């Protein structure tokens, strides 16, 4: 599953917006490059052609990517200034927010490590708060088409925490791929007596 911070902090709850994007890369050397992406969108959400206010949302990222020997690496900085108001919601549900983040990746032939951290100051209904979130993912690689993986992700530390452990079978271009994931979850407002709602997932893909 996608890290929880993706919906709540890193990009907002909508996957699609109408707008324009500029993205590209510049080669810095034999094994490195600079990359950039900038988007200006209406912020109204998926499949909404008429914006609900005059403000636009701005999203951007700059980063470096390279390779040294058997190791690939990536480091990026991102920021956003946006707003959101869900359709048919009262004005009090309107929210303005900013987001500042950093991401990294180290991909070795035996281990891949990637993570992201973000802060998001926001104001909704006259109330202000700053959310912070991060995740860290480890993927083990073997000489066979299977291996272990683990991830920890959290929002505001005490409100939401999740450990995910599992294993995969099949590489990206294989005909059959299977992923097993078990999630150890904690949510502050969970209705269960022990505060946990653990989940087991089995994901399968067949290419033909």
Strand content: over 45%
Radius of gyration: 20 Å
Structural class: mainly beta
Described by strand count, sense and barrel closure, the largest sheet is:
11 strands, antiparallel
Report the uncertain regions.
Answer: none
Q: How much helix, percentage-wise, in residues?
A: under 10%
Query: How many alpha or pi helices?
Result: 1
Please state how the strands of the largest beta sheet are arranged side by side: 1-2-3-4-5-6-7-8-9-10-11
Question: What series of H and E elements makes up the topology?
Answer: HEEEEEEEEEEE
What is the average per-residue confidence, as pLDDT, rounded to a whole number? 86
Beta-strand segment tally: 11
Q: In angstroms, what separates the terminal alpha carbons?
A: 24 Å
Shape: globular
Give an account of the 3D structure:
The protein is mainly β and 208 residues long. Helix content is 3%, strand content 62%. It has one helix spanning 4-10; strands spanning 19-29, 32-41, 57-68, 71-84, 95-107, 111-124, 127-140, 146-155, 160-169, 176-187, 199-206. It has an eleven-stranded antiparallel β-sheet with strand order 1-2-3-4-5-6-7-8-9-10-11, with helices on one face. The longest helix is centred in the N-terminal third of the chain and has 7 residues, at 4-10.
């Amino acid at each position: 599953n996608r890290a929880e911070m993706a919906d709540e902090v890193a990009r907002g709850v909508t996957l699609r917006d109408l707008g324009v994007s500029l993205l590209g890369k510049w080669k810095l050397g034999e094994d490195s490059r600079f990359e950039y992406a900038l988007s200006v969108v209406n912020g109204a959400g998926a499949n909404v052609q008429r914006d609900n206010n005059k403000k636009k949302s701005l999203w951007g990222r700059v980063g470096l990517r390279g390779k040294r020997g058997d190791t690939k690496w990536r480091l990026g900085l991102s920021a956003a200034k946006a707003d959101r108001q869900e359709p048919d919601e009262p004005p009090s549900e309107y929210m303005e927010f900013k987001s500042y983040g950093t991401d990294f990746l180290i991909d070795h032939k035996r281990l891949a490590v990637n993570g992201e951290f973000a802060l998001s100051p926001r104001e909704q209904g006259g109330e202000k708060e700053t959310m912070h979130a991060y995740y860290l993912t480890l993927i083990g690689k073997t000489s066979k088409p299977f291996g272990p993986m683990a991830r920890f992700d959290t929002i505001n530390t005490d409100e939401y925490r999740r450990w995910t452990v599992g294993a995969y079978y099949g590489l990206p271009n294989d005909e059959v791929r299977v992923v097993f994931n078990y999630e150890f979850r904690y949510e502050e407002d969970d209705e269960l007596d022990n505060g946990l709602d653990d989940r087991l997932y089995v994901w399968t893909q067949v290419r033909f």
